[in-house]
Amino acid sequence: MVSNFFLVIFFIFFLYLINFFLKKFNISLDRVLESENHKLLLRSDNSIPLSGTYYFLPIIFFLFYKLDFFAVIFSLFFFILGLMADLKLVNSPKLRLIIQFLLLTFLFQINKDLVINTRIDFLDNLMNYNFVRIIICSFFFMVLINGFNLIDGTNCLSTLNFSIILFFIYLLSHNTNLNLFNHELILMIFATLIFVIFNFFGKNFLGDGGAYGLGFLLGFILVKISLSNHSISPYFVANLLWYPAFENLFSIMRRRFHKKNNYLPDNNHLHQLIFKYLRKKNFIKKNFLLSSIVGIIINMYLFIVYLIGYFFYSETNVQVALILTSIALYLLFYYRLTKTSR
After folding, report:
1. DSSP sequence for 271-325
2. Which of 20-34, 100-114, 189-203 has the lowest mean pLDDT?
3. Given this model, what pLDDT does residue 279 score?
4. Mind listing the pLDDT tens digit for each residue in 78-120?
5. 270-281 and 287-311 helices cross at what angle (nearest 10)?
6. Is the pLDDT of residue 38 over 50?
7. Of residues 28 and 308, which shows the higher confidence score?
8. Is 139 within 8 Å of 118 (Cβ atoms)?
9. Phi, psi (deg, nearest 5) at residue 181
10. Burial class (CB in 10 A: 0-12, 13-18, 19+), 3
11. What are the C-alpha distances in Å from 8 to residues 3, 245, 342?
């Protein structure tokens, strides 16, 4: 217990030093470019450290490399890819998507036991064909990690969501006797919550590296959990991950419908519409604080949905109902907020 306390103190000190040196040496700062004016909506500082890769990558190696070295290695690849984007070395979104796809197809080619169980006979039968399995699984992970990256611009939205999902992974592992590195999960939750506190005050973001690396790791762990215990509905996994994935898919469909380039950012995501609505009400004047409130509000709803899903983690019907209800509420609020913002 004492060692865990000192480790948490170390996490705080470690993150503080990372933010300090990134600012001091002008490295990995999220400066707003002309093509990124959407970022100014949720912040006041034009040079926020993108600390995710520097903070989480060594922690993940320290906690998990002995337990699942395979997952850690591929997390490393995604951390590095995202870091290259944060450093403006890989600016092309198309190139990043191509590299993501190549990494994922390689992962699923060499690990044929990894499969997403849908409990839909038609899809599960298609998964028996290696090529189809690789394409479907790669698509799932690409939607997921880019969804986490999409919501990272709002304080506490992506970071707190990671913490909550890790918490439910721990509960699931502990209470179903999976015992999947439970001690390491607790420390990882603390490490993520410390990042959330800094993120709440607008002191750092995950960046592409943190969102890609953590998004991949969570998806990988949850797929492994669903495969290791068939009493766990795969739709409970989908319930834990629906929000970033749907935010990404909905944005793609919305932009295509309006004939806009999918690679160009905009201010029309749900979290941004909520921010603009609350800002009109003039409850909170500081953008960074209002941004954090929006992130917390969305995660409060998600926590309730996850909690209900956890109590019925074996019941596929309940999980599907929760997901469909959440999507319906998302679309309803989105429609209402777009009307009020006109």
Report:
1. HHHHHHHHHHHTS---HHHHHHHHHHHHHHHHHHHHHHHHHTTT-HHHHHHHHHH
2. 20-34
3. 87
4. 999 999 999 989 988 999 999 999 999 999 999 888 888 887 7
5. 130
6. no
7. 308
8. no
9. 40, 55
10. exposed
11. 9, 31, 46
Closest listed residue to residue 71, CA positions, set 94, 28, 104, 93: 104
Kindly state the average pLDDT of the residues 276-291: 85
Question: Is residue 233 left, alpha or beta, with left meaning phi > 0 and alpha meaning psi from -120 to 50?
Answer: beta
pLDDT in tens, 149-165: 999 888 999 999 999 99
Mean pLDDT, all residues of the chain: 88
With the CA atoms of 231, 233, 234 and 237 taken in that order, what torsion angle do they form, in degrees rounded to the nearest 10?
-110
pLDDT at 147 over 80: yes
Contact 50, 29 (CB under 8 A): yes
DSSP of 37-70: GGGGGG-S-SEEEB-HHHHHHHHHHHHHTTT-HH
Asked whether the beta carbons of 32 and 46 are under 8 A apart, the reply is yes
The tokens describing 118, both together, are 């849908």
Q: How many residues does the chain have?
A: 342
* Domain locations in the chain as residue ranges: 2-340
Residue pair 158/148 in contact (Cβ under 8 Å)? The answer is yes
Number of H helices, E strands in the chain: 13, 2
Neighbours of 256 (CB within 10 A): 11
